[in-house]
Every structure is written in C-alpha cells, then in structure tokens.
Amino acid sequence: MKTIACLLAVTMATSPVLAQSQATTQAPAAAPAAVAQASSPDAMPLSLARVQRQLLAREVAKPTEGGALRIEEFVNVYGKSIAFEVMRDYDATSPAVQYGGMTHTEFLNLVTPQIYRQPTVDFLGMALGAAKWAVNRAAEKRKKAEQERIEDEARRLRELAVSPPR
Predict the structure, then answer these.
(1) Which candidate, 9, 16, 48, 50, places its Cα nearest to that of 34?
(2) What is the pLDDT of residues 8-61, one digit of tens each?
C-alpha cells in the first residue's frame, strides 16, 4: 500500500516537470505560461491533500488476514445514476378493482376435479346418527335385561314360597 502511495506521489510530482519539458521543446514562446500553469497546485484537477488523506485512511481502516499474500484494492466510482421509475404506468386516480382475488372456495373449485370434491351427503351427520342409535339400542337392551332379571328373581321366589313341605 505504501508503494502505491509512493508511486502516486512520484507520478504527481513529476507530471508538472514532464509537462514543462514538453512545453519547452514544442513551443519556446509559450513556455512561461505553461510552466506557471503546470506548476501551480490550484490548477491541478486533484487535491493532493485529499488523496493523501484517503490513502492513509485506507491503510488504517482494516488490516487484512493473510498478510502480504492477500492484496486488496478499493475503487470508488463516481457517476450519474440512472433514472429508476417504480410506478411508471400506475394511475392512482382510478377507482379500486370491483372484484378482488379469488377466494379459497373458488380456488378449490377451480383445481379440484368434480369427482374428488366434497360429497353432498352429510357423512358426519350420518355417523352421529348411527352413534346415537347405537347408544339408544344399548340402553334399551340394558333395560330389557334388567327387567328380565327382576322377573326371573320374582318367579324363583314364588316357586320357593309355594312349594309343599317334605
């Protein structure tokens, strides 16, 4: 990084000297104006202090892993950004859509074939009815069995009471 900074500084320092030597060989009459213009730091398009400050900031910014074998260079690119229009053809003054997106039922009717759709027979109602019938039937059988047991007990007691002594 320091070598790049040194090369940049040497290049910037020698460019006015080169410009001066080229100007003296090409046009000796225009030499004093070219020398004055090339040697003044205000006439240069770059600020030497700003370049040095940025180079120092990059060296201090973050040390890289890998040592001298890993070379990282950063380039700042300045330019004009493109125009990016998100809603170019959108008319905000138009009214809302009369009919929105499809409902879940409409989607299911669209993608499910007729033979696989929910049947029209109420299977839950049938299952509940069958369970209720089974419970009532079991209760009736229990009552009937209890009644038969009571009748058998009464018949047995009558037979014991009526039987002749021996």
Answers:
(1) 16
(2) 666 766 665 455 555 455 545 554 555 445 556 666 667 778 878 877 776 655
CA nearest neighbour of 72 among 80, 86, 85, 61:
61
In a domain, 28, yes or no: yes
The answer, as to whether pTM is greater than 0.85, is: no
Domain end position, chosen among 21, 51, 69: 69
DSSP character at residue 164: P
Place of tokens 């790049």: 4
How many structural domains are present in the chain?
A: 2
Q: Which residue has the higher pLDDT, 91 or 126?
A: 126
Residue 113 carries which side chain, given as an amino acid letter?
P
First-residue to last-residue Cα distance in the chain? 134
pLDDT for res 23: 47
Cα–Cα distance for residue pair 71/64, rounded to 1 Å: 8
Q: Which of 77, 45, 48, 61 is nearest to 1 (CA)?
A: 61
Give the domain extent around 52: 2-69
Question: The tokens of 55 are what?
Answer: 């180079």
Domain-located, residue 58: yes
Cα 33 to the center of its chain, rounded Å: 62
